[in-house]
Amino acid sequence: MFVLELTYTAPLAEVDALMSEHMAWVDAQYAAGVFLASGRKRPRDGGVILAVADSREVIEGVAASDPFTVGGVCDYRITEFAATRVAEGLGAYRETAGA
Prior knowledge:
This protein is α+β, with helices and mostly antiparallel strands. The chain has helices at residues 12-17, 19-31, 56-64, 67-70; strands spanning 2-8, 35-40, 46-51, 74-80. The protein contains four helices and four strands. Helix content is 32%, strand content 26%.
């Protein structure tokens, strides 16, 4: 499992100019089963995404394809973690302690 933290590197006007493309990309990642949760940070200086993939390389490729990345308006910080405890309904994403 991965936490993707986006930090805006450009004024909000430039971010907002790419928002519809970014949201279409977000929708596609949900449809592909990659994203589990996402939203804006407060204060609005970026966003956070909870994602799943087979490898960090896959997630790095997903982040690189974000219109915000392509447009040069954000940086990504990617943190991989083992989800050894999960809420009910997320059992499919639980990892065993040794994995």
